[in-house]
Predict the structure.
Amino acid sequence: MKPTDWRSSVVYQIYPRSFCDSNGDGIGDLPGITAKLDHLQQLGVDVVWLSPIYASPQDDNGYDIADYRAIAPEFGTMADFDAMLAGMHQRGLRLMMDLVVNHTSDEHAWFQQARSSRDNPYHDYYLWREPAPDGGPPNNWEAAFQGSVWEWNEPTGEYYLHMFSKKQPDLNWENPRVRQEVYALMRFWLDKGVDGFRMDVINMISKPWNADGSLPNAPVVRDGFLQPGFAMTCNGPRLLEFLREMCLEVLDHYDTLTVGEAPMATVTVGQALTHPETGALNMLFQFEHMDLDIAPGQAVGKWVTQPLDLRDLQQSMARWQNGLHGQGWNSLYLSNHDQPRPVSRWGDDGVHRVAAAKMLATWLHGHQGTPYVYQGEELGMPNYPFATINDCRDIESINFYQVATRQLGWTDGQAMAAIRAKGRDNARVPVAWDATAHGGFTQGTPWIDSHPNAEQFHAQGQYGDVDSVFHHYQRLIALRKQHPVLVHGRYELLPSSHPRVSAYRRLWVDQCLWVVTNFSAEPVTVTLPERMASGQTLIGHGAEALTPGMSTLALQPYGAIMVLGQT
Ligand code: NOJ
């Protein structure tokens, strides 16, 4: 295959547990993925990002790895993996593995050794601290899945650090042996022929040590509680140094594609990490746009939402688009296994579901960067109507529910409403493939319930329908291959005459590409950007046909238009 042209690539994310089950045990698996590769080829994507498939107790659905070189039996065997990879390569698809090396599982052999005694050679693979003077945790950080980041370890009489669940102890990247272990496992997969890595919370690997070896308390933002620990560990002092070492040791010796997941990354961090000459990664997942609908100043982070103000979204995108133009590279995403479905979140999952899914896709794919499509997004899958906490499987939602209802005084109704809006399981219910039971995902009982409305959006029903969300994604992906302005063009935010209408353009040589989208359930008429009327419509739905000289444009609810013309 040709070297990875990641700037013009489109990536498709597979969450294996929920993609396709081949053996009826209710859990998606590797042969299931192999069986569906034609779907990806038909869609036109270039790269697959595969969420973790390694041996794991599955406390966090595989983001807690017990053996980096083994496949979890519920997903299949190494032979199944090899067959899947060969099937991808035959179709010209590349494979990015999920590299989860900020932490391991507590069932990883390293941690089992490390926790056994302070003298064990693996002890220093993890982060241990003495109790505070009162015997409690060494600092005030709160873990991502509730509770302290510190867990007591009886055999050594110390606490260990875990930024996520207590079954996900953080690795000690200050230890050069740890880094060499990571590089060795990366080589293992690259030598097997994989094409790159998506790096889980990679900007958390360098912790902000005090001179005395302690980790500083987080500023108090809410009295009487633990304080969010994330802000303290993201973008730490040795991050770029570690990643550059990883390039020298591993990545520079292969043709790879890399994307770093980077919560709390700023544009400056994005530039530093992805700069074409001095950076270390091809691109980042930043979270600024994903956090815009979180109500500020709440005790429970992401769970209290506010309506999205489109102007905030545009300002944020503009900052990243302009900041990384020529100085780095953006990833473009609205959706992944940690986020609710965008059509429910920022569109409409009722009567306008199809239009809203297409509009959001047009809006996203018009930007500069590498677009990511998360399984089911190309079908316009909406959120799931979780009724009780027993419907949920995600550790984050389950822990939140317990804290909210037992400690914070929330009612069951309030907590479930928050989970319906923001819970990660929304994106983890099985992909709807056809009209048979469980949307054709499994012949057995799925590990999490399949969507009750699968008949409205399953893939089989969309393949032959040129007006479907699937065809819309297919066309958008094809446009990126045909029009260099989509890859290279400079971004410019345009003034919009309506608060729920987004307008921007991309400029490249003498070409101009306009994208105008209606984020509302109302028909709107907006002023047309100058010269747009004489361009050629590349893709559009719910938008008035352009005629030269037109000065306004009528857009239906969630209508969108992308137009190519001259500057
Ligand atoms: C980010 C992953 O995307 C998420 O699913 C996981 O829970 C955490 N990192 C911990 O690995």
The two ends are 36 Å apart (CA to CA). The first helix runs from residue 30 to 35. The longest strand covers residues 552-566. The chain has 16 helices and 21 strands.
